[in-house]
Fold:
Amino acid sequence: MLHNLMPFLIHWGITSLSLWVASYVFKGIRFADTPSLVISALLLGFANAIIRPLLIIITLPFTLLTLGFFLLVINALMLQLVSSLVKGFTISGFWTAFFASIFIAILSLLIGVYLDGGGTSWQLHRTGLWV
Structure:
C-alpha cells in the first residue's frame, strides 16, 4: 500500500504547485491561505478521478460533436466545483476557470516531466500522475 502513496503525494504536490502558480498568473483566482490551497488540490484530484469520468461519459456525444473541445469545459467546471466547495478558494468566473484549467494542466504536465527526468515513464502514467 505504501508504494502507491508516493505517486499520490507527488501528484498532490504538483497540483498544489500548479494551483499556486495559477493564482499568481490569473488575477481572478484567490486562495485565502495555504490550507485552502492544499485542500483545493486534494479535492481537485478527487473530482478529476471520480466526477470528471462520469461527466465525460454523460457528455460523450457532445464531446465527439465538438471534436473533444468540450473536455476543456469539463475541466473548467471541475475547477469551479472545487472553488464552490472550499472556503477560501475563489474564482471570478467561468472564463477564468477555463483558461486557468488549461494553464494548470500544461504546467502540471511540464512539472511532472521535469520530475521524471525528461520522459514519461509507464509507471507514472499508469498510476494516474498525468491529468
Observations:
- The first strand starts at residue 29 and ends at 31.
- Residues 124-131 have pLDDT under 50 and may be disordered.
